[in-house]
């Protein structure tokens, strides 16, 4: 039975060879990443449309975001993407211990990212900078201001959910005894890189372009 | 069994490429931050987004190994980027005809 065939520890499923199975998994992951990219693209399109409608309010909204938090978080995610790439390379070289350490370092950086994001959310919430009808920041009131922060929460919130999902996957893999088996680490690392790419665009739009 | 010498050299080269790409990403991020504090006027957004695109390309080509990856994967992502281009044209058309 095909499903019972194995190459070493890896179950081959309907595939004849491990290389064929690995290529199919990689392609499936890229199709998934393509659909994720489209999900975020919709939000970026909304942002562009509303920024064109309310340029001043969006510029002032950007000034209210904590630039240092956005910038430190950018460095954190860029370094985490590099360490994830090195983890995957280490695994291909057969160095499971180094891969495990690098994956857990990536997880640490991801947690730091979420911690800083939470800090910014808490500060905004206290000031009355909240999404939708709960927006109550008197110093920046008017059409466009609550729209900017609704989009801010939507975009960064969805991104943070993706970071959290990536962290769960990387933690599970980093602690797994079967870290060197299969293609799972490469797929999880690919997902992490997409999370990084999305933030690369969120940073200038929400923290830098005034 | 030890890996062939050519494989080992390729993998060492890949490690160096990843570190170099990481350095380039940090330098580009510093560039984004620095230019955000220079008065660029209407060029601010295009410049910031151009640097962001460059960073995304470095991540995709080096970290995600798209430069050497399978053609089908590049095709799948290409389709997604094509749809994003269509979406961008739609948004631009909306903004320009208001």
Structure report:
- The complex is a heterodimer of chains A (210) and B (98).
- Chain A has 210 residues and is mainly α.
- Chain A is built from six helices and two strands; from the N terminus they run ββαααααα.
- A two-stranded antiparallel sheet of chain A has the order 1-2.
- The termini of chain A are far apart.
- In chain A, 38% of the residues are buried.
- In chain B, helix 1 packs antiparallel against helix 2.
Through-space gap between termini of chain B: 67 Å
- Helices and strands of chain B, in order, run as HHH
Protein structure class of chain B: mainly alpha
Q: Which shape of chain A, going by the Cα principal axes?
A: elongated
Number of helices of chain A: 6
Radius of gyration of chain A: 20 Å
Class based on secondary structure composition and strand pairing of chain A: mainly alpha
Number of strands of chain A: 2
Strand content of chain B: under 5%
Cα(first) to Cα(last) distance of chain A is: 62 Å
The rough form of chain B would be described as flat
Share in helix of chain B: over 70%
Walk across the major sheet of chain A and give the strand order: 1-2
Strand-residue proportion of chain A: under 5%
Order of helices and strands of chain A: EEHHHHHH
